[in-house]
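User: What would this chain look like folded?
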Amino acid sequence: MSRSGVAVSDESLTAFNDLKLGKKHKYVIYKINDSKTEIIVDKISSDESYDAFLEALPEDDSRYAVYDFQYEISSTEGKRSKIIFFTWSPETASVRSKMIYASSKDALRRALNGVSTDIQGTDFSDVAFESVLERVSRGAGSH
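Assistant: Here's the prediction, encoded as structure tokens.
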């Protein structure tokens, strides 16, 4: 339960575990239900395209997302994968939406074990592939 009183649905945790352990999904987008009581799954996809993920984020409303981000540091080290937690809160979202998502984030974030990086996005440049790649590869040497 978060400070805002919003709970995390079982479905939300199942979707995350399917992404993390089962590798069934590429990303999961979460939203707070209309009655503002629970964080639920908004969209699940196995589409490998990062652009498809970005297109699934609403332009004028907040969301949370987890993404199985794959990248290559160098040709000798091969591909790596990190699970990234996104808090998407665009400038155009209502103040109420931004506030409830900000105050409810910890409940979901604490429930998701195995996330390596948190990214806060207020516009699409914050969550662009290159921006995310820079964030995850910066910490790559320390893991």
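The chain has one domain: 7-142. If you want, I can go into more detail on any region.
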